[in-house]
Amino acid sequence: MSVRLFLRDLTGFAGANLARSLLPFLLMPVLTAKLGTTGYGTLALLEVTILIFTPLLLFNSPALISTRYYQLDADGRRQTITASLALAFILTLSAQAALLIVGKRVAIALGLPDSFYLLLPLFILVRIITTYITGIYQIQQRAALYGAYSVGMLACDLGLSLLFVVQFDWGYKGRLLGSHLAMFIASIVGLRYLWREHLLGGRLNGTVLRDILRYGFPLIPHALGGVVLAMSSRYLIEYYKGAAAVGMYAATYQLASALLLIGTTINQVWSISLFKLLSEGVATNRRTIRRLFAMNIAFLFVATIAIYSLKDVLFGVFLHSEFRAALPLFPWLLIGFLFQSLYFIFVNFDFYDGSTTRIGVVTLGAAALNILLNVLWLPRFGISGAAWAATASMAIYFFAVAGRVVLFSTSFRSLWTREGNE
User: Fold this and answer.
1) Alpha-carbon distance 360 to 325, whole Å?
2) Share of the chain above pLDDT 90, in %
3) How confident is the model at residue 420 (pLDDT cuts 50, 70, 90)?
4) What is the CB-side half-sphere exposure of residue 310 using CA atoms within 13 A?
């Protein structure tokens, strides 16, 4: 793959991701006005709960499919995808059964007055399925299909959320129901696509299922730790400062995540391109990989500066005036997202080398540090302390991962040998 092809794919996926990212930003003026800081905080806590439990049910099988897709034949791909989805369904049923037992405690912890929490496993399942579908489009480098699927889900999500929140006045429930009903519809469409492409069906292969478990289990600490690293502060903010403070923090976090959108878009194309180029041979593709590596890092720094320069405009357009006091958090969260985006560039070398256990250990360590810093700083500095904790823990996380990759990753070090510099 040449740099030109990389930029072509990046442009295609960036357009689709831009459309997908518009939804949270388009809804922010409505949600912040209709829900207020407290309602927005409750919504943020429920979304965090969904995001924290999703990795446990996802079992990291999309990462396995991504790294193995071009190494498997058609039958192997079908068996792997079928087994992955079956595993997610089984784990979802187990989660639903567990929630029926301990659900009241969950409701009390989240401050929910009714049994709405029983829908959480279903929300997680449809999120998992759409993650698989978009991942397959990405692996196949079908940017047009990825875009059509994403924009269709976006339009459905936007329409349903506005209907439920504005017309029916269902508050945070309306937002969650609108979003996940759109994902449910998209899941049906996506599963039909997999069936037509002969990527779904047949008997469940026990060997393939065990392979998924062997690959995914060491990555659970990484996936779970990543979500905890990014989101756990919201529980602590609620504990120390209340739901209104969560709403202030979550809204600012959402605006700063514009940079993370750019980082994940780059990573979508970078990860697949890197795996493909490395599998074709380092000697052949060394120069191309090095150029893409440097280009991605430079682009992230430029994007950070551009977004920071627009901070006043973003707050004025997307947030209700009630949230203006959270503006000082924005630069810190933006820097944190820069470190997270840079982390993506490096960690793919670990994924290619299969160093999943080491990734998980470092991620859990960074998540624990984030929690510790929040406990120390939140009571004294308020939500500013949470923003500082996010930046500090993500910076340390990035340097730990990047340092390990530079020193120990076989695939990374092979790019910088003497013969590669000749």
Assistant:
1) 36
2) 43
3) very low
4) 13
For residue 19 the two structure tokens come to 């459309």
Give the SS3 label for residue 417.
coil
User: Reduced to 3 states, what is the DSSP secondary structure of residue 354?
Assistant: coil
What's 218's DSSP letter?
G
On whether the CB atoms of residues 90 and 23 are closer than 8 A, the answer is: no
Q: How far apart are CA 175 and CA 165, in angstroms?
A: 6
Say if residue 273's pLDDT is above 60: yes
Identity of residue 109? A
**Whole-angstrom Cα distance, residue 138 to residue 87?**
22
- pLDDT tens digits for 327-343? 999 999 999 999 999 99
The H helix count followed by the E strand count for the chain is 18, 0
Cα 234 versus chain centre, distance: 17
Q: How far apart are CA 97 and CA 90, in angstroms?
A: 11
pTM: 0.75
pLDDT of residue 400: 93
Compute the C-alpha angle 328/333/337, nearest 5°: 155
291: Cα within 13 Å, side-chain hemisphere: 12
